[in-house]
Amino acid sequence: MPLALDIRLARFDDLAQVDALFARSYARLLKDEYPPSVQVTALPRLNRAKPELLRSGRYFLAEEDDQIVGAGGWSLDPRLHRLGHVRHLVTDHRLIRRGIATRILNAALAQARNEGVTRMACDATRLAVPFYESRGFFSVGPVEVNLAPGISFPAVRMARAL
User: Is the terminal CB of the chain with fewer CB neighbours within 10 Å at N or C?
Assistant: First the structure.
């Protein structure tokens, strides 16, 4: 049965629910893709929503029955104003492959395109690479995302034209 989803812009008061989504989903979705050493250091930092992103007007939530089941958005590159970056796209681990991430990504890409962005990039988890490829992104290569001094997260830089 298809999900009855509402896609809406995030608000700052969604922070606790988004943190809860990240905490319950990232740990389960990434456990087979990354060694325990990476999980122990990186997950506590990945599991926190960025308040400035929630306030940006560029971060979307998917809700079903008033529960947040997906989140994601984008930001404008501060140096290259026609380049956007996909940010913190995640689906509740119990509802993957049901179209939630696709709907959120489509909303983000449409908004970015309307704001004059011509290229979108992302640093994808290993698990997410096939998803992004199916949405027109191509692999640029491996990247280490710096989360804090001495803590990095292996990802795959991906990009696509809008």
Answer: N
> What is the distance in angstroms between the CA of the first residue and the CA of the last residue of the chain?
31
Q: What is the pLDDT of residues 6-21, one digit of tens each?
A: 999 999 999 999 999 9
C-beta separation of 49 from 18 below 8 A: yes
DSSP character at residue 47:
T
Strands 67-76 and 138-148: unpaired
Residues composing the chain: 162
Q: What is the CATH number of domain 6-117?
A: 3.40.630.30
Backbone angles phi, psi at 11, to 5 degrees: -125, 160
Residue type, 12: F
